[in-house]
Design goal:
- Helix content is 38%, strand content 27%.
- The protein has nine helices and 13 strands.
- It has helices at residues 17-20, 27-38, 53-65, 85-93, 101-110, 121-126, 162-180, 196-209, 242-262; strands at residues 9-15, 42-49, 70-74, 97-99, 128-130, 134-136, 145-150, 153-158, 184-192, 213-217, 223-225, 228-239, 267-273.
- The strands form three sheets. It has a six-stranded mixed β-sheet, sandwiched between helices.
- Strand 11 (223-225) and strand 12 form a beta hairpin.
């Protein structure tokens, strides 16, 4: 799927040197992509960025310049010196950072801090946002979701802990993305008795003849049987309405069945589905 008025581009950026070093696995991007795709959204790019100001501003500015409608970042909103996401976004926008006093008041209430001057530097840093940005309080932690408008691009900056990402996505990000993404998404899983080398060209043929479809074979889940290789394939279709999406899905399935038959294979439908993870597991 390509970016269009019906499918505005969404990009996800995970920020943290520890991710690039392999110390922590980036599960946030994986989970966010699943949620966005389930809403009918188009995730155009996923990237991991170092905790480096020049790198962050360059990459995120480029995302905005390319007309990305929504940018979601995770990480870099904590109390330590290497947490620079808010400042990076402010630099791209060309504004200063400011302390959001409503967040400070929330921190004071949650931690029974009586006086403003007793709020430590770490909490103040987590309450610091680009000037003009909107801060969404965190229901599962401290650092907020920071929503910033840069031209036509909306940037949602989320903290890094997965539990907080999930909570803030549901509270503050899912709704706007749902409003942005029009249409319905339907899919199913099938099995074909073909090796990947023969199946792959058929999948590309179907996608070319049926716009707004996506077909993916999962070689890691294939099985060897007496009849040959059983290769799982996901078929997904997008359209403005559910009936139209189902009709497109059926068209893609029928075309795939006919092309597989020419190779001497039948196509077995396993299950309807909404999405699959990278290992092919239905969710």
């Amino acid at each position: 799927m390509r970016s269009s008025d019906d499918h505005p581009a969404i990009e996800i950026y995970s920020i943290g040197t520890e991710l690039l070093n392999g110390q922590i696995q980036d599960t946030n991007s994986f989970w966010l992509a699943q949620q966005i795709t389930a809403l009918g959204g188009y995730v155009r790019r996923i990237c991991i960025i170092d905790d480096d100001m020049q790198e962050m501003t360059s990459v995120l500015r480029n995302a905005c310049d390319r007309g990305t409608r929504v940018v979601i970042t995770t990480g870099g909103l904590g109390p330590t010196p290497d947490d620079m996401t808010a400042e990076a976004v402010a630099r791209i926008l060309g504004v200063s950072t400011v302390v959001d006093e409503s967040l400070v008041a929330r921190f004071m209430e949650n931690r029974d801090i009586a006086r403003r001057e007793d709020v430590n530097a770490g909490l103040l840093k987590m309450a610091t946002v680009p000037e003009g940005a909107k801060a969404h309080p965190n229901p599962a932690g401290v650092a907020p979701c920071v929503e910033t408008q840069i031209g036509e691009t909306t940037v949602f900056s989320l903290p890094g802990p997965p539990r907080e990402v999930k909570a803030l996505y549901g509270q503050s990000v899912k709704g706007p993305i749902g409003e942005l993404c029009s249409g319905e998404r339907v899919g199913l899983r099938v099995v074909v008795n073909l090796p990947e080398s023969q199946c792959g060209p058929l999948l590309h043929n179907v996608m070319e003849e049926c716009p707004n479809t996506y077909l993916k074979a999962f070689v890691a889940l294939s099985e060897r049987t007496a009849d040959g290789q059983r290769l799982p394939v996901d078929i997904v279709a997008w359209a403005q309405g559910e009936a139209e999406a189902k009709a497109l899905l059926q068209q893609a399935l029928s075309l795939f069945e006919s092309q597989a038959a020419e190779k001497g294979s039948e196509v077995e439908v396993l299950a309807e589905k909404e999405t699959a993870d990278s290992s092919g597991t239905l969710i």
